[in-house]
Amino acid sequence: MPELPEVETIKHSLQTHITGLTIADVKVFLPKIIRSHTPGDFKKALVGQKVKDRLYRRGKYLMIPLSERTLVVHFRMTGRLVFLDEKTDLPKYTHLLFVFDNGRQMAFADMRQFGQIHLLPNAEVNKIAGIKNMGPEPLGDNFTVEYFQRELKRRRAKIKSLLLNQSFVAGLGNIYADEALHLAKIDPERPAQQLTKDEIIQLHQAIVAVLQQGIKNRGTSFRDYVDAQGNIGNNQDMLQAYNRKGQPCNFCGTAIERKKVTGRSSYYCPQCQT
Asked: Would the pTM of this model clear 0.85, i.e. be above it?
């Protein structure tokens, strides 16, 4: 699933291409992807709409502001949003196609078909269930050490599980949670309440650092993620823990191990993260 750095990269790579364009046509190949309208109403509401202002992101959601409404994209497991030349073949598993007034196109493709597209009035974007109760942005001003410490001290959940909880902090997924915990040298199964003040500060800094690195490297690509031009990211080459089972920890040389934490695979160093 695209996490915060991947969605941020898609946003940047798409914005310069579609800002100011007007939607001339919409083709719906898989109606269930649309969560707010029937296919006919979806097309009717979109045709003639101009892409305005700046695209923005909330957690793992991408928002595309239009003349009167906002297109909200949730990529889920395997969703892709790719900007195309009018002569370019559509990506495999294309379920929605947006055709602009200059002939260029934007395709939403999704092999697993879990992705979601909403079209809402601007004032109602935050009413989407996944956004309504979302926690602070980890790269935003509200994600302070004070907030982090206060919330951790009242939670009994395992720290890995808590980092994946979007109502606690927005945009983190399995990759960057594992990377942050490894950088901070914290066992993913540690109860959140048990973290010391120094560990909390270290983890807060680690979350910010791994996300910034992910954005700098244009996201992490293993199987499905590409940016809006169809390019893979480079951050997979920089990972220290995730997907490195059996490889040496870059801190101590111990082999990275994998274990399940509340049903999710977690990669960690058994020596450093005790």
From this structure: yes
